[in-house]
Amino acid sequence: MARKLFFGEYLIEHGLVSEEDVLEALSVQEKKTPPLETVAIKLAFLSMKQIFKIFTLQAGTEGSFSDIALKNNFLNDTQVNQIIEKRKSLKPPIGQILIDTGKISAEIMEAEAKKFDAIVAQYNAIRKVLMAMPVFSKIGKSAGNYLAYLPDHLHFKSGEKVIAEGDDADCFFCVISGSLKVTANNPEGGREVYITTIERNDTFGEASIFAHEKRTANITAIDDVQLYQFHKDDFIEFLKKFPASSQPILIFILQRLLYKLNCTNKELAFERRKFIGQDEVNTLMDELFE
């Protein structure tokens, strides 16, 4: 899932209300939510005189109230964020509006709200695990919220192969728990050549983000393993959507690849058998920042 869940969408997808019902409820919600300037006064950030001045400066421009207030030093970034968060807390729930307008019964709403809360809790748990991983530890909150809806959760038992040499390289993995061994096929036949071990909070297969080639090694579960699998197209779309957060992620991945490429020949075989070409890196940058 490549987006954060919205309760209204959940209700629509389950056939409990229509899109028109939710749009109507959103309109009612917006009308019943205090505007930014009212919240700013309640928080004692602005006076009525200052509000009037901001409206005067805003007239004839395309800037929002908060943009003008920031530009003219009536508010700072911290205050604007506090106003936005306070305004969110004052919004009447979509579910209650749908009940009040007769679009859904209170009993059904209560049952579905519990199911939805369980789903959200599940994705919050995924987000917590991801943000603890070095590759994602420096991304923003919004990016982390979005990221939690991207991966598939996979489980492998001891001895099961996650990746086979020669497979298409169209995804990469984060290790939630367990350990895996990396081996290469023996060109002379016989037992696979051991290369290294991958542990919890590590990632593998990152080169798939940059190149369109086959896997160059086998990855096999040593014990019970839990993984998050990120598909290349979904992940690139995420990087494009959150360019500021994409920078530390890409730097981390490139550092890892460069480290592996400068290790032993066996380690080199694990990640790549030839260096990533500049053309491939340029292509990815064009896709992300076009």
Q: What secondary-structure arrangement, pairings included, does this model have?
A:
Elements: H1 7-13, H2 19-32, H3 36-42, H4 48-58, H5 65-71, H6 77-89, H7 94-100, H8 106-131, H9 141-147, E1 152-156, E2 161-163, E3 171-177, E4 180-184, E5 193-198, E6 203-204, E7 218-221, E8 225-231, H10 232-241, H11 243-261, H12 265-271, H13 278-289
Antiparallel strand pairs: 1-8, 2-7, 3-6, 3-8, 4-5, 4-7
Structure description:
The chain has 290 residues and is α+β, with helices and mostly antiparallel strands. The chain has two domains: 125 residues, no CATH class; 139 residues, Jelly Rolls (Sandwich). It contains 13 helices and eight strands. The strands form two sheets. It has a four-stranded antiparallel β-sheet. Strands 2-7-4-5 form a four-stranded antiparallel β-sheet, with helices on one face. Strand 4 and strand 5 form a beta hairpin. Helix 2 packs across helix 7 and helix 10 crosses helix 11. The chain starts with 6 loop residues before the first helix and ends with a helix.
